[in-house]
TrEMBL record:
Chain segments annotated as coiled-coil in the UniProt record: none
UniProt-listed PANTHER family: HTH-TYPE TRANSCRIPTIONAL REGULATOR YJDC, TRANSCRIPTIONAL REGULATORY PROTEIN
Protein name (Swiss-Prot/TrEMBL): TetR/AcrR family transcriptional regulator
Keyword annotations of the record: DNA-binding, Transcription, Transcription regulation
InterPro entries: Homeodomain-like_sf, HTH_TetR, Tet_transcr_reg_TetR-rel_C_sf, TetR_C
Keyword presence, Transport: no
Pfam families from the UniProt entry: TetR_C_13, TetR_N
Amino acid sequence: MSTPEGLTRKGLATRARIVEAAAELVLARGVNATTLEDIRSATRTSRSQLFHYFPEGKPDLVSALTQWQAARLFDAQRPHLDELDSWESWQKWREAITAFYREQPSWGCPIGSMINELSSHDQVAATVQNVWTEWQSLLQAGIERMISAGLLRADTDGHRLARSILAILQGGMLMTKTTLTEEPLLDVFDSIFLTLRAHAVDPAR
């Protein structure tokens, strides 16, 4: 996660504490319902301190917490996300990300949960778009390794398939957050594997 230059170790720790507290509030309440005053109160931070670490105010802070959540999300999928080259590796990835989502206090993807509220924040929307682009690229790299290994058909469009997987996943997580049950989460991974298997060289395996 990028941070302002010139901060001391104590300053970096304070900024990280603010970001973590803000992330918890936003995940529970939403971006628009979480104010800077809420964050100040939760972190016992003065207004001047808050703007010292986040000069542009809320857009800076939400961008920072988006990067922080993205780092958590990607770390939870590793090393499997970087090693998608067999059906077994995809199964391990599924288990890792399912475990991560089950641990979320408000049911749902910490990145996807913010998307519907970000249309008026260009800076934040750009940060989220970078997260989606990176995630899709990592999934696409795994699909292309499966093609090279002869497990997926050579005519498989890795870019389109990776985008479909991400779309299926986020749609399922929205339902999980709405219903407050894990059934949509389990169903979504079944759908992802069915989508992958539809491109398999040997679908019966």
